[in-house]
UniProtKB/TrEMBL annotation:
Coiled-coil region list: none
Name of the protein in question: Tryptophan 2,3-dioxygenase
Organism taxonomic ancestry: Bacteria, Bacillati, Actinomycetota, Actinomycetes, Micromonosporales
Superkingdom, natural source: Bacteria
PANTHER family: TRYPTOPHAN 2,3-DIOXYGENASE (PTHR10138:SF0)
Pfam families (UniProt xref): Trp_dioxygenase (PF03301)
Length: 236
């Protein structure tokens, strides 16, 4: 018997795929050809809009991981952080599309952007806030369990708290790599003005590259005793 593929979900669209994914709305979020002042506006919007979607997912994973830490479910929190970090990796990789945007093309389409700036990204602001909440949850965990970071990093790498800390470092590093790539692309296409000019977007973005959400996790690496892993008892 022939299967009936008629849509059963509510919403707009000729298929359930279109209705569930809301493709009519999604594909109507970009400026129409008659509205564009340059053809590469489509490239520019698609990269940034998809970035906001990946950030939305990453923030959701980060927020859930924070809740799992507070509930003592550290392995689950680690897995969620790995998913969030992968989202940032994909955000970074799609910046490669801007390699096809010349400085002249960007200057031509820039008037369409008004005074818009990536610093105004709601996804980025939410990622910053979620990262701070994650760090606070981890600090509470260490305090509640009486864990010293230096001893933790000299002990068993299989320890769930150690693995969680490493997942946080991975998130932090992925964010940093995204910033670096963003900065390099911005300089390449001339979208952020000359580096070194006080208050210029390029100068402000360069200052953010070395920012770390969890500096204590990076600092402990620099303070490890020589000789590799040791037991916490050896350091008491």
């Amino acid at each position: 018997m022939k299967r009936d593929y008629s849509p059963v979900l509510p919403g707009e669209g000729d298929t359930d795929y279109a209705r569930y994914m809301r493709t009519d709305t999604l594909l109507d979020l970009q400026r129409r050809p008659e509205e564009r002042i340059h053809r590469d506006e489509l490239l520019f919007q698609v990269v940034h809009q998809s970035t906001e979607l990946w950030l939305k997912l990453a923030v959701a994973e980060l927020s859930e991981a924070t809740a799992r830490i507070d509930d003592g479910q550290l392995s689950q929190a680690e897995l969620l952080l790995n998913r969030a970090a992968l989202g940032i990796r994909l955000v970074t990789e799609q910046l490669e599309m801007f390699r096809h945007l010349t400085p002249a093309d960007f200057q031509a389409l820039q008037p369409a952007l008004g005074n818009g700036s990536g610093a105004e990204s709601p996804g980025w602001k939410q990622a910053q806030a979620a990262s701070r909440r994650l760090g606070q949850a981890f600090a509470r965990l260490l305090a509640e369990r009486g864990i010293d970071l230096l001893k933790l990093y000299c002990a068993d790498p299989a320890d769930p708290v150690y693995r969680l800390a490493e997942a946080m470092v991975e998130w932090d590093e992925r964010i940093s790599l995204w910033r670096v790539r963003h900065y390099k692309i911005a300089i390449r296409i001339g979208s952020h003005g000359p580096l070194g000019t006080p208050g210029s977007p390029a100068t402000m973005l360069a200052k953010l590259i070395d920012h770390r959400f969890f500096p204590e996790l990076w600092e402990v690496r620099a303070n490890l005793p020589r000789g590799g892993h040791t037991s916490p008892a050896d350091m008491s």
